[in-house]
């Protein structure tokens, strides 16, 4: 529910815009002064807008340049040292120039650093686009930031800066109160000079602060929030920032809901503003001037309070928030998910803290601090931790339990096969027990793709495996030396692997090789004949199919290997035929050619050439010539494999006389 603040006028708007332009801020001339009534239930922010997955999932990263006042940005994946993910565990220490913690002190698990302390005209940016759910009329985004900017007193448009843009994508307008630029100069409010500044170029920093972005009343609309840092436009000085966004996106005050049994109530306004003024329901009485309003005893349920928020000069708009104080608080502690971890490894419990809550863990054994919301546990044996949460007033108590078990990884390394062998011999197999993930190493260097429970070494080396568990732990197996000696690579070529028996001559040319040393050879021709020469020429004494084997042995490693090939010797036919009479008279001629070739049966082809241009392909031939003369008859016999033989005979046909007389 949103109400307009009648105290917000156009005069205030133009005064604020003049201040923004004075500091070089580019702000659209739009401003809202709202009062909103908060709901008691918190609204969950868009997925990973708070970086709590420890990744940039959902965020679009950009890299680019800032030169002579011109900003160029291009989409990119996260770039090392320009988009840096920070983690509460183990923590990233303090900023060198500002001395403040790099990790956002709001209790979250992750925040980011945008940019770095190296000059060079770089620019970096990240943006997140989200749609407020339909029907969710209460939506407030709170972001946290810290800034480090080097000041060389350039003109404003060349100075390092942090720019924050909140864009109503649906309506294509910038949200004026939420869009701003921090451009370094000597009068930038809220900044301090670093004691580690180099001479002549002071580094100005602003410790972690927060800003509320009130997007209530925009249900169903799409917004984009973008953070951009730049070095100076002259490329000689740097600028960077730290960013985090809260995990809840409600407009509720901390403490706006309280427990019926509370003895006191703290109502806390959003932090990051310069001044706070608390008012009663009709703005006739000032109730307080700090971020937190203290009630002791608690107020009557339904009490309405207002707080006027005054931002630092130039940072956002004056705003007024209204809250109904209701005794409807119910605690839902979250000790975190049950998990299995490795012995003596650290695991973070719980969730980020909520203001106004007290935390206690039992047992305290192994905890970094049993009185915070998200301690770090070092677990050496299975344990169940009970989290007890009490609100400030003490009227509500809730508990939750998290169970931590141990994920013991087996370090045994099994060996199958010989650990000293020839490369062409039986494999050596190294095996470990199953784990969440596995990495095999040779000579302490990870083997790409070797992530299974079994590994077959193919090179001499010292092998081991590292096993990983989902709990974040890992163990290492023992080392195993495996010696693999080079085997020769056998090989030979054949002039013709299929030949006819007649005049068969097989030429085997050796192509065997080895990296170093000399080789011995042993030929087995498959017909009982053996030889030890490098190459061999062989004649088979009978048709048949023969397997030729070559064994090659290294004189250096004593390793050997064999190769084989099959040769075929086809039977050759013997062609012959007979003629009933090789010389006949023309008148009574009748030639009968009888085939007497061997073999006499099988897949055999016959080709007859009768010497006068006539051809036959039958086994036997009976033929009468049409003209007397001498003829050369040829018979060709062909068997499978293309083996042939021929036989030739000459026949004579004599002219017959023609008898006759006259009277």
Strand content: 35-45%
Shape call: elongated
User: How many distinct beta strands?
Assistant: 52
Instruction: Tell me roughly what share of residues is in helical segments.
Output: under 10%
- What is the name of the CATH superfamily of the largest domain? Galactose-binding domain-like
- Identify low-pLDDT runs: 1-42
Which secondary-structure class do the elements indicate? mainly beta
Q: Cα distance, first to last residue?
A: 156 Å
Give the CATH topology of the largest domain: Jelly Rolls
> What is the residue-mean pLDDT, rounded to a whole number?
86
Cα Rg? 48 Å
Q: Could you say how many structural domains there are in total?
A: 6
Structure report:
The protein is an all-beta fold. The protein is built from 1 helix and 52 strands. It is elongated, with a radius of gyration of 48 Å.
What's the SSE blueprint?
Blueprint: E1 2-4, H1 10-22, E2 34-36, E3 60-67, E4 70-76, E5 83-87, E6 110-114, E7 122-131, E8 140-150, E9 161-168, E10 173-174, E11 180-183, E12 192-193, E13 203-214, E14 222-230, E15 239-245, E16 265-268, E17 275-279, E18 286-288, E19 292-295, E20 303-310, E21 319-325, E22 339-341, E23 345-348, E24 357-362, E25 376-379, E26 383-391, E27 397-406, E28 413-416, E29 420-422, E30 429-432, E31 437-442, E32 445-446, E33 454-455, E34 461-468, E35 474-476, E36 480-485, E37 492-494, E38 498-500, E39 506-510, E40 519-524, E41 530-531, E42 536-538, E43 544-554, E44 560-570, E45 577-579, E46 583-585, E47 591-595, E48 605-609, E49 615-616, E50 621-623, E51 629-639, E52 643-654
């Amino acid at each position: 529910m949103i109400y307009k603040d009648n105290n917000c006028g156009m005069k205030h708007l133009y005064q604020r815009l003049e201040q923004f332009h004075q500091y070089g801020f580019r702000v659209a001339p739009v401003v809202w002064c709202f009062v909103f009534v908060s709901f008691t239930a918190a609204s969950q922010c868009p997925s990973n807008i708070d970086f709590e997955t420890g990744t940039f999932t959902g965020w679009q990263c950009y890299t680019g340049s800032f030169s002579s006042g011109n900003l160029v940005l291009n989409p990119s994946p996260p770039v090392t040292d320009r988009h840096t993910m920070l983690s509460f565990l183990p923590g990233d220490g303090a900023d060198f120039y500002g001395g403040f913690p790099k990790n956002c002190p709001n209790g979250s698990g992750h925040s980011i650093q945008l940019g770095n302390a190296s000059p060079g005209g770089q620019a970096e940016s990240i943006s997140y686009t989200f749609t407020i759910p339909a029907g969710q009329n209460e939506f407030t985004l709170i972001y946290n930031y810290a800034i480090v900017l080097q000041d060389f007193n350039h003109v404003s448009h060349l100075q390092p800066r942090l720019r924050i843009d909140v864009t109503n994508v649906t309506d294509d307008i910038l949200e004026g109160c939420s869009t701003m630029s921090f451009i370094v100069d000597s009068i930038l409010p809220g900044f301090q000079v670093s004691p580690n500044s180099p001479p002549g170029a002071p580094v100005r920093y602003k410790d972690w602060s927060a800003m509320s972005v009130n997007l209530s009343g925009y249900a169903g609309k799409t917004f984009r929030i973008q953070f951009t840092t730049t070095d100076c436009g002259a490329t000689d000085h740097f600028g960077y920032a730290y960013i985090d966004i809260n995990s809840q996106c409600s407009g509720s005050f901390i403490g706006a809901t309280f427990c019926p049994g509370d003895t006191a109530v703290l109502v806390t306004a959003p932090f990051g503003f310069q001044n706070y003024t608390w008012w009663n329901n009709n703005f006739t009485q000032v109730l307080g001037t700090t971020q937190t309003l203290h009630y002791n005893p608690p107020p009557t349920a339904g009490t309405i309070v207002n707080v006027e928020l005054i931002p630092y000069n130039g940072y956002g708009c004056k705003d007024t928030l209204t809250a109904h104080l209701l005794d409807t608080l119910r605690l839902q502690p979250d000790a975190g998910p049950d998990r299995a971890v490795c012995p003596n490894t650290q695991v973070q419990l719980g969730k980020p803290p909520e203001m106004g809550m007290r935390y206690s863990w039992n047992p305290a054994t192994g905890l970094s601090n049993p009185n915070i919301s998200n301690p770090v546990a070092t677990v050496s044996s299975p344990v169940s931790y009970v989290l007890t949460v009490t609100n400030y007033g003490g009227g509500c108590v809730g508990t939750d339990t998290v169970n931590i078990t141990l994920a013991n990884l087996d370090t045994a390394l099994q060996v199958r096969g010989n650990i000293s062998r020839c490369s062409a011999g039986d494999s050596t197999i190294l095996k470990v027990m199953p784990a969440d993930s596995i990495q095999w190493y040779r000579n302490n260097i990870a083997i790409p793709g070797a992530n299974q429970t079994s590994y077959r070494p193919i090179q001499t080396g010292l092998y081991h495996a590292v096993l990983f568990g989902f709990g974040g732990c890992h163990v290492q197996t023992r080392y195993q030396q495996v010696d693999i000696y080079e085997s020769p690579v056998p090989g030979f070529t054949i002039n013709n692997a299929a030949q006819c028996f007649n005049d068969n001559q097989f030429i085997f040319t050796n192509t065997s090789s080895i990296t170093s040393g000399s080789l011995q050879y042993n030929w087995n021709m498959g017909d009982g004949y053996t030889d030890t020469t490098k190459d061999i020429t062989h004649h088979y004494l009978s048709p048949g199919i023969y397997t030729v084997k070559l064994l090659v042995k290294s004189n250096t490693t004593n390793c050997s290997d064999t190769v084989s090939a099959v040769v075929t010797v086809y039977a050759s036919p013997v062609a012959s035929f007979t003629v009933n009479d090789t010389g006949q008279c023309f008148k009574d001629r009748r030639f009968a050619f009888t085939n007497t070739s061997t073999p006499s049966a099988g897949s055999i082809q016959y080709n007859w050439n009768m010497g006068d241009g006539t051809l036959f392909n039958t086994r036997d031939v009976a033929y009468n010539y049409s003209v007397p003369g001498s003829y050369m008859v040829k018979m060709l016999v062909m068997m499978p494999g293309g083996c042939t033989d021929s036989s030739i005979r000459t026949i004579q046909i004599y002219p017959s006389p023609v008898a006759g007389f006259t009277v």
